[in-house]
Give the backbone structure.
Amino acid sequence: MRTTIFILAFGLLTFSTAFAADDEKSNKATSGETAFINKVADGGMTEVELGKLAEKNGQKENVKSFGAEMVKDHGKAGDDLKSVAGKMNVTLPDKVSADHQAKIDKMSKMSGEAFDTAYIKGMVEDHEKTVADFEKANTEVKNADLKKFIDDTLPVIKHHLKMAKEMQAGK
């Protein structure tokens, strides 16, 4: 009887350990998912920094308010992404890439009309690329948490693109 109980207990332990290992594997990010997460984190941090500049250096009120929205929305998305990345054992960058820092530095030297024009042009270009990246990732990503992040964030990015295009068109 004790042997039977031991064998059953050992079998259950082995069975549950195998499932736990499978769960861990399914949460591990693929190289493509890791690349996407890092790209989104870098872009989001850049949008926050550029949004702060828009609030400070922008001339038009709609540019300033758009900048404030970028800080709020991309800050929230960054927090959400950090949570997803943590579950997937992906370490996010703690600062923007050198390319993005150069863009921030360039924009920080601008103000008024020149800033507004360059900022809105950049926001249209950046959000077009980001929408395309999110739509592509949505077809490739397997992780459920990352898929949910994409599904929740993509409409916000599309809204930002629409707003930026309207400002660019003078509406």
